[in-house]
Amino acid sequence: MANRPLGFRNVVRLGLVSLFTDVSTEMILGVLPYFIVTELGATAAVLGLIEGASEAVNYVFRVIAGFVTDKIGRRTPLVMLGYGFSSIAKPLFAFASAPWQAFVVRVLDRAGKGTRTSPRDALISDSISRTEAGKGFGLHRSLDQVGAVLGPVLAFIVIPLIGVRGVFWASFIPAAIALLILIFFVKDIRGGTNEGTAFQNLRSVMNRSFVLLLIVLAIFNVGAFNFSFILLNAELLGIQDSKILALVYGVLNVATVILGLPSGILADRVGKTHVLLLSYGMFLVTSAAGLLLTGSTLYAFVIAFLFGSYLAISETVQRAMIPDFTRPRLKGSAYAVYYMVIGACSFVANSIFGYLWTISGSSVAFQYSLVTSFLGIIALAVFTTARGR
Description:
Order of helices and strands: HHHHHHHHHHHHHHH
Strand content: under 5%
CATH superfamily of the largest domain: MFS general substrate transporter like domains
């Protein structure tokens, strides 16, 4: 790799690419479940199958792309391929007339996201020094989430004018802007091609410290439910209006915008694992709040902000930590393994949490996440102490 990093200008440009892409994505995500179930006639089970399969494809492609980017010694070709694939796929929802067609489009979109994610994270890390990784990933995270806030707002404005299928077409406009920024302004750092096979790279990446880190992350993330259950809990608290639910989701996203960059800067100053401990503590508090705060719709907004705070800190710091445990030319492979673990744990966590919620109620589900987050905090504290020694 080049000795001189490209600097934060490259990170900002990648952040703007993610911002406009997220505007495009979030414009359609808010209406997509309604469209698939109401207009295309799918059942809730079919909708779950579509989302589950598409996210599985997303993580599979993250793993593949991570190894490929190290093999070719380049980042931007795969990043461009991934963003381009998603940009072209999303407007195709406008042609869907049956659930299986929506399934195909959704899988194509998530394959694009998976293709770009590991190489993009490696490029962010390539662009800045290791001592400023937290700031870099925090900046990217905050810009990305600005798009997540703007997307639903734009959809809310244009749906009365052009309809749901029109929104699918309109989503291509911000996606095209993102592609133009990526093509003309984002710079790559060229490295030599990696002669090792994917299996050899995997063996090189899996050093003792990295394996221990992955175990710690797995212990915590096996109980880390996603935002869907925050919205489901809001309904239990009495919020039935879809517009108010969207506002709850907006509060969650605003928290990630506000705290992404500050958490990254703090991680660079006091240590990444210390700030990651803070995020795990925020998740524990979120689970406790879901268990204890009942009887008022206002609690839904408090819980959403707590969850958004946890997301902002954990996703920023975890991504910034990965390059600390591997050689520069194997960053893509390290991110591949990281996303493989996170993806598997996410599947297990949401499956168990949803099952417990269904058969025993939300309180038992939140108790499960309380236990796993507490165990994750202990494991991370032991890991941090051992590294310090």
